[in-house]
Amino acid sequence: xxxxxxxxxxxxxxxxxxxxxxxxxxxxxxxxxxxxxxxxxxxxxxxxxxxxxxxxxxxxxxxxxxxxxxxxxxxxxxxxxxxxxxxxxxxxxxxxxxxxxxxxxxxxxx
Length: 110
Fold this sequence. Notes:
Layout: H1 6-36, E1 45-46, E2 51-53, E3 60-63, H2 80-84, H3 97-109
Antiparallel strand pairs: 1-2, 2-3
């Protein structure tokens, strides 16, 4: 019958779904690679996502235009003064940025 039976139709539907899934996976992977390679607009900000790097762990978790946002990865509170003054205890974080980076580095290594 030249592939017109119900079994052939089901195989074609499955193959079409595989193609769609592969295209979606490729799109996601390409986007992830652009982010990994630093497709940024400057200042550590990713244009598409609206996030900038955490000053402690360097993950892109801090929303642009936010004030005192806590990083969900390392817990650092994004404070403009403490971000610029590495040894300062004057701000919402109980430790300096320099010490927080050392502590975070030890957590990653262990």
